[in-house]
Structures are given as structure tokens and as C-alpha cells.
Design goal:
Elements (H helix, E strand, L loop, with lengths): L3 E2 L1 H14 L4 E9 L3 E9 L7 E5 L2 E5 L1 H7 L3 E7 L2 E7 L5 E2 L6 E2 L1
Parallel strand pairs: 1-6, 2-5
Antiparallel strand pairs: 2-3, 4-5, 6-7, 8-9
Length: 107
């Protein structure tokens, strides 16, 4: 299955990479955090690390380490603007619950 981006997310990431002037793509992972157990981690990747799974979506590479892929497989990453708020939204079929503040999730 892998990880995919919506067109909106890909456009936002492309603009950010262009502004940075370099980068291989977007690194997506998870870490232990919050009251529900796990939190998403996003950062720009300058190189593909050994063991990374690489998924290309709308011309953007999404890099996921093997430990995180178990929790992220099938995830669609979107970028939305709602009034003054904007940011990434995760549509993760593995997610079973989220905390009240929306910062962490459990599988």
C-alpha cells in the first residue's frame, strides 16, 4: 500500500522544497509521545537513508523508515486550509483512537 499524498499536500511540499533550495523529499515517521501513545513526525529529507521505503506521489518522494511503516502503511497525507488554520491532515487506516487535543494517536 505505502503512503500517498493528495495534490494539495504535494504542491505545498514542492513549494517548501523549492524555497529551501534542496531536498530529496519528505520524511514521515512516528515517535512515542502524548497521551494516546504515538505522534506523527514530518521533516524534509536531504537523502534517502538505508532501510527507507520510498513512495512517490504527485512527483514528491515520501521516505518512511521500516519501524514507522508498520503504523503508516496506507496513510494519505493531505494539506488543508480552513479559515486561519492550515496544516497537514493524516488519513491513517491503522489509527484506532486519538487524544482530545489531537496531538497523538494509537493503533
Amino acid at each position: 500500500m505505502g503512503v500517498t499524498l493528495t495534490e494539495s499536500a504535494a504542491r505545498h511540499i514542492r513549494r517548501s522544497l523549492d524555497k529551501r533550495g534542496h531536498g530529496e523529499g519528505l520524511r514521515l515517521g512516528v515517535r512515542t509521545s502524548g497521551c494516546s501513545g504515538m505522534a506523527y513526525v514530518l521533516e524534509y529529507a536531504d537523502q534517502v537513508a538505508a532501510g527507507d521505503s520510498v513512495f512517490e506521489s504527485h512527483g514528491i518522494k515520501v521516505l518512511v523508515d521500516q519501524k514507522s511503516l508498520v503504523y503508516l502503511d496506507g496513510t494519505v497525507l493531505d494539506y488543508t486550509r480552513e479559515g486561519l488554520n492550515e496544516g497537514f491532515k493524516f488519513q491513517n487506516p491503522n489509527q484506532k483512537d486519538t487524544c482530545g487535543c489531537g496531538e497523538s494517536f494509537s493503533v
